[in-house]
Structures are given as C-alpha cells and as structure tokens.
Amino acid sequence: MSTRKLNSAESGLDAFVVTDFDDAPMSCGIVRLAPKLLVDGATWLARSQTYQFASFERQVGGASAGINAPADARAEAIAAFIEAFTPDAGSVLLDAGKGLGAGEISALRAADPRPEIAIDRAVELRQAGIVAAAELALGGLDGRTVAIEGFDAAGLQLATALIGRGAHVVAISTATGSAFSAAGFDLGSLTDGFAAHRADLVNELGVDAKPGWAVFGVQADALFVGSKTGALDHNGAPHVKAGVIVPYAPMPVSAKALAMFARAGTVVLPDFIVTGGALAAWPAEGASAPGDLAAAAAELVTSALGEVLGAEQGPLLAGCARAESFLLTWRTELPFGRPIA
C-alpha cells in the first residue's frame, strides 16, 4: 500500500492517491472530495477494490484518492488535482465518488482504457448486481420486506428496483431520521417526498419519524446498509431482526458486528461481490461486451455470490478467501488486512 501526496503551495491543492499494489499493471478506484478526508479511510477503500477485482478474476489493484477542499474552493481544487494527477492517468483509473459529479473529472477519461459504457452505466449496473444479490440470498423478492439504511438518491433508485420486483420497503433512514411502514411505502410517496424534502423526507411520509439508528431494529427480511464504512457496528448489531444484510457500498459492517451476526445466524453478504455489477461492462481481456448489460451484471454478481452463499464461515469471510485464492495466482503474498471495517 502506498500513498502519493499531491500538495501544492502555489495552487493550494491538498490531495492524495492511495494504491494497494505499487507494481500492479493497473489500479482502479474512486476519488472523493470533502473538507477533510483521511488517508486511513482511503486505504481501506482501496483494499476493498482489490478484493472486488480479485473476486471477478481481474489482475487490477485497488486505488482511492481524496481531495481536501472547502465548498467555496472546490472548482479550483478539482482543476489542480486533475493537472497534478494526469501523469498517473492510464495506470491509475479513478471514478467520481462522494462529493464529486462524474462530469467534474471527465478530463481523466482521455487516458482511461475502459469502454465509455463502463463508466457511463456504472451506477445502473452496480444497482442491478445489488438487487440480483438480494434476490438470490432471499430466494426471490416478491412479497419480501426490506429496509434501506442511508436512503438518498441512490437509495431511491434501489427502492424503485426492489418495489418493481415485488418487494415492500418497510423502513428507510436518512441523515434526519427513520420512518417505518408495516405495509410498505408507496413508491410515489418516496419519489415525491425525496424530490421535495431530501433527507427530511422521513418527516413527510405520514408516520412518526424515529432516530436514524432505529432502522436497524425493523422487522424485515433484508436490511440494505452502506451510508458509510462501519455504519452497522456492534452497537447496532444486537437490534437487527433482518435475516440478511445486503451491503450497497464498501465495508458497511464492522468486524465486531460481523462476529455477532455469525453467532446469531444472520447472513452478511460480501460487499465487494455484491457491488461488482459494473464490471460486466468492462470485460476481461479478450472478452467481448455482452449485449444485455443489466442481465450480465446480475449474472456476474450472482455467479460469484452463489459460490460462497452457503459457506460455513459465512459468505463474507468465504468471499475474502475466494478473492485471496485468485490474488495468489499473480501476487507472491497477500496484502495485510481484509476489507472489513
């Protein structure tokens, strides 16, 4: 794991790029922007990416970059980052993460060898994989009850897909709080409420809003988590009633919580497999892109997940071991530390 600092007194740039393997032929990950991002958190995001690529047999290392900038200096900081990072472009591939829009780093595409469709449809294909993973783990979505922690624009897209498959969204949480509905929220109410109120939507759904953490204790078949790394920790784990935890972002379940879930018999899906659907649009070397990318994303994820779903140690730890088996086909040793918060 190495960190390259991109700091400039002249431009005021305060940024960094983390790569998991110094000698990987290619590294890939995200770049985020916020007033203060820590390198430590970025290293674990890079590690998660490494395990995702290994899960789908790609000899690609994980990467993660951060731009530290206040809101009133973001444009200048982004421009300075692109200028400083350009020599690495092509060997280190970065997608827009939290705090950035895809168009804000579009200048990096010139040196990006991935098919344009792999970037343009990444969010859609990632979601297709997440929904397919939940469907496999639950044995179908029709009539199933689900809760979504960290409901935002992506959460609304997820809810739309789940409801479209016949699931009932019985709880959501936002930065403001959480809201429950035993019968399931109407998609129109979620859509209109989010458009008008964003995170305050939980106060506008005709039910009494509760604290955000209350979503962990809702009675549901599946709990979708991913608002941040370690969002579901040992404090929230004892309250969970859902039988399946479905991650929609890297490392949302802490190591302590994972141990508690193992004792309780709660299934925690491996985030680095579940969120890998976008790789369907970036075929392995020599392969052609599939025609139906959404279906291919679902198949890609469920094929890998199916290999670990019934494992005695649980699918997350089994997924780690599976990824490590591939890593050892092109690395002399494993990186230190598994991608678990």
Automatic annotation (TrEMBL):
Pfam families from the UniProt entry: ELFV_dehydrog
InterPro entries, per database record: Glu/Leu/Phe/Val/Trp_DH_C, NAD(P)-bd_dom_sf
GO biological-process terms attached to the record: amino acid metabolic process
MF terms in GO: oxidoreductase activity
Residue stretches making up the Glutamate/phenylalanine/leucine/valine/L-tryptophan dehydrogenase C-terminal domain: 134-280
Species annotation: freshwater metagenome
Gene3D superfamilies referenced in this protein's UniProt entry, alphabetically: NAD(P)-binding Rossmann-like Domain (3.40.50.720)
Protein name: Unannotated protein
